[in-house]
Specification:
A: alpha/beta, globular, B: alpha+beta, five-stranded mixed sheet, two-stranded antiparallel ribbon, about 5% strand, rod-shaped
């Protein structure tokens, strides 16, 4: 995992309890240091599009993975997903929906909008930790990411 | 030619048909008896009217009983054959009579049974039935033979055949009611008797009503024709009948008027002749007198001419008033007077010639007396003719007035009927409009209800969504933090504390399962069925594979029999089998060797699938609670579970229109079976 830099993973999560548990799980998989946390949809969009308080960021250093909750204040997860997938700068970033909901409506809308993966957070913490481990392993190690867009 | 099966529906209408047949048959027998025992009232009904001929009566007996045999539908084969035979005989009798009429033959049929009266009323050929009667019998006989023949729906041949007899007998009856012939009075032919007309009417109606559920009647009765249309048809038929009656009355009255004006013409002729006679006598007198005075033979020319004319006019008058006995008597009185007057004139002329003027003049007095008598009688006759003329003129006026009244009343009636039909149509239109409005209203209401339902559904969805999202989150937190506590602070916790943490985690996880299962149940309820043909064997194999995690360390013998292909929702049926099989796996856990059997059988004509196990079973006492939500028959520490699985199974099966049930015995195992209400 030597090629993983800081801010490789964007975690979008509003619930502090969920946040802590997720970070705990990430920490135990030694992924925590690469995670940047945003607490609502607006902040997520600012971060991803390098604007607002994240205007110092650059598209040259895109995140490798977005872990997206659906129920978010201000701009909800589906809107974030839609914006992300309809912009050429951010379209290629893999998005994993990480949510409590397993409603068919959310599932189909998520995939419709281009989510790469949909994971329901299990109630069982062991299961959750296993899921996070597998996700990190798959998306950050096994999966070969797309090359940087030309001219960037 | 076997009669097609018609649904038997003995009705009042058919009873009327039977009654018609019976009446006609019995009438025929009565008339035959009338011929046998020479009872004029039975032969002719009205005194002096035309009689029903013996062959007519015989044909009525045949046709009446034929109708009696053929009317009840469906007809058994022996009754049909007998009925057809009778109808055929009646048709043959009429056909032979028609042949007699048309070809002018005498087949010696007419007086075969009985001799007709030598001077029978309104009878063309003694004993022969009327031409119209023969025609009617031919058509009615055919209609009985073809009583069930319906070349296309809504058109029964017999119905068309009886229309003509219906019309003919109807017109005959109108003639009888009216008192005189109108249309059918051909003097050389026999007239239809009164009871013959009635019997034809009944026979035709009987044939019509014998099959009320078929043909045009069937259409009207119960078929496509709306109740409203029936009324309109009735109104039309009634108006038509009224118009026909008006037409007949008009024809009759026109004939009547012509006859009356001919009579008036006749009286005018009589009066002209009378006046002429008087004038001629006077001319003769004048001529004679001229000769008397002058002795000039020239004056005798008009005298001689008048003499000839008197005779001509007398004869002409005689023939003109031959139909009037009173006038004829007066004319007879006139004859000797005229003769005397002529003789007197002749005597005077001869006296003048032979003995000169004075002698002739002496003869004057008796001549004047005679002339006065002649003038009196001629005046009387003229007065009588004038009276007749006035009376006949009045009759003509009356006849026209009657005709006008008939046309007025008839037209008024027809108009009334049409107006009533129009009113009924209008009312029906309004009623339909109201019904439509009501329908609209109901539609609007049901739409509203549908909207309300949709709203409720959406609310429910929102509710389950938030349950799914918000209720699971805290449970997850409880479990997650307990786990972290357990892992990271275990050294600081006593064993009892660690056990408590285990209990907390178990509780949170159980609540999580509960939420998941409930969500699943509600999802199943809301889901629309996506039907396809599903091979259940494949599904069972897939489910067994999915259960692999639960099968570790277990010794289970699976017996999967032949399973049907069913039309169902593949995902839902998999859920059903998953729930049933995992139950079977769960409740056989205490068995060292579990046996789980899946097979198919037939229940109430539908394929049923069963899952049988040799597990702990349950008491059938609680069988009715088995499929309720949260209903459990085992303690949680013995068998884990949320009590939602079987409720989900039942909901899915019911959604498919099927049935699910269980048979079990405590400690012996359980069998769960279901059908899906569909077959492939």
């Amino acid at each position: 995992m030597t090629n993983i830099r800081e801010e490789e993973i964007l975690l979008v999560e509003d619930n502090p309890d969920d946040l802590e548990l997720t970070l705990h799980a990430l920490r135990s998989e030694r992924l925590k240091n690469f995670v940047h946390v945003v607490r609502d949809g607006e902040e997520a969009l600012d971060f991803l599009f390098c604007r607002g308080s994240y205007s110092h960021r650059s598209f040259d250093r895109p995140v490798h993975l977005v872990l997206l909750d659906l129920k978010l204040p201000k701009v909800d997860g589906m809107e974030v997903l839609r914006a992300l997938k309809s912009d050429p700068h951010t379209r290629r970033i893999p998005v994993i929906i990480l949510t409590s909901s397993r409603e068919e409506k959310d599932l189909s809308q998520g995939y419709e909008l281009g989510a790469n993966s949909y994971v329901q957070k299990p109630v069982d913490f062991d299961g959750f930790r296993a899921a996070v481990r597998q996700l990190g392993l798959y998306w950050l190690v096994i999966n070969v990411p797309p090359p940087l867009p030309q001219g960037q | 030619m076997t009669p097609p099966p018609v649904p038997a529906r003995p009705s009042r209408v058919q009873f009327v048909s039977l009654a018609c047949g019976a009446f006609v048959g019995i009438l025929g027998i009565c008339v035959l008896a009338g011929w046998q025992f020479d009872l004029p009232a039975w032969k002719s009904v009205l005194p002096g009217a035309v009689s029903m001929k013996p062959n007519t009566a015989l044909a009525f007996v045949l046709a009446g009983f034929s109708l009696l045999l053929l009317s009840p539908s469906p007809v058994s084969s022996w009754r049909a054959r007998a009925g057809w035979l009778l109808a055929l005989l009646a048709a043959l009798i009429s056909a032979a009579t028609l042949l007699e009429y048309l070809a002018g033959w005498n087949l010696a049929l007419d007086e075969f049974l009985f001799r007709d009266a030598p001077n029978a009323v309104a009878t063309g050929s003694p004993g022969r039935m009327a031409l119209t009667t023969a025609l009617n019998f031919l058509l009615l006989g055919l209609s009985l033979l073809l009583i069930d023949y319906e070349p296309r729906k809504g058109f029964r041949f017999a119905e068309a055949l009886v229309l003509f007899p219906l019309l003919l007998s109807g017109v005959s009856l109108v003639e009888y009611v009216h008192g005189g012939p109108i249309l059918l009075a051909l003097p050389q032919y026999t007239r239809m008797a009164l009871h013959t007309a009635v019997a034809f009417l009944l026979l035709a109606v009987g044939v019509l009503l014998a099959r009320p559920a078929r043909g045009f009647l069937g259409e009207i009765h119960g078929g496509l024709v709306h109740r409203m249309e029936r009324r309109v048809y009735l109104a039309l038929a009634l108006s038509l009948a009224v118009l026909v009656v008006i037409g007949l009355i008009s024809i009759h009255n026109a004939n009547d008027s012509v006859a009356r004006s001919q009579e008036v013409e006749h009286t005018l002729q009589v009066r002209t002749q009378l006046a002429g006679l008087l004038l001629t006598v006077q001319e003769m007198e004048t001529g004679a007198r001229g000769f008397l005075l002058t002795g000039d033979e020239q004056y005798l020319q008009p005298y001689h001419k008048a003499l000839d004319e008197v005779a001509t006019r007398y004869l002409s008058l005689q023939s003109l008033i031959a139909d009037n006995p009173a006038q004829t008597a007066r004319l007879r009185q006139l004859e000797p007077l005229l003769r005397a007057r002529l003789e007197f004139a002749q005597r005077k002329v001869e006296t003048r010639r032979a003995r000169g003027f004075d002698a002739a003049l002496a003869l004057v007095a008796p001549g004047e007396q005679l002339m006065k008598s002649i003038r009196d009688i001629v005046d009387q006759m003229d007065a009588e003719e004038a009276r007749l003329q006035a009376a006949r003129g009045q009759e003509e006026l009356d006849s026209v007035a009657r005709m006008n009244l008939a046309i007025l009343l008839g037209t008024g009636f027809a108009l009334g009927v049409v107006a009533f039909a129009g009113f009924a149509l209008h009312r029906d239109f309004l009623r339909r409009q109201r019904a439509e409005e009501l329908l609209h209203q109901l539609n609007a209401e049901s739409e509203e209800r549908a909207r309300a339902l949709e709203t409720a559904n959406k609310e429910l969805e929102a509710f389950t969504y938030s349950v799914s999202h918000d209720l699971r989150a805290p449970l997850r937190h409880v479990d997650g933090f307990s786990k972290i506590l357990e892992e990271e602070f275990a050294p600081h916790l006593p064993a009892e504390g660690q056990r408590m943490i285990q209990r907390i985690r178990a509780g949170a996880q159980q609540a999580g399962h509960l939420v998941d299962d409930l969500l699943n149940l509600s999802r199943v309820s809301r889901r629309e069925l996506k039907l396809q043909i599903v091979g259940l064997k494949t599904v069972v194999e897939a489910v067994v594979k999915d259960l692999a995690g639960e099968l570790q360390g277990r010794d289970i013998e699976w017996r999967v029999g032949e399973l049907p292909f069913l039309e169902c929702d593949a995902a839902l049926i998999k859920q059903v089998l998953l729930n049933l099989l995992s139950n079977a796996v769960k409740y056989t856990r205490p068995r060292p060797k579990a046996l789980i059997e899946i097979g198919a059988c037939e229940r109430e004509g539908q394929p049923a699938v069963f899952v049988r196990d040799n597990g702990v079973g349950f008491s059938m006492k609680y069988a009715d609670k088995l499929f309720g939500v949260f209903q459990r028959l085992h303690r949680a520490e013995d068998f884990e579970g949320t009590g939602v699985g079987l409720a989900t199974v039942q909901r899915i099966v019911h959604k498919h229109g099927g049935r699910v049930w269980a048979e079990a015995e405590l400690d012996k195992g359980a069998t769960f079976s279901f059908t899906l209400g569909r077959r492939t």
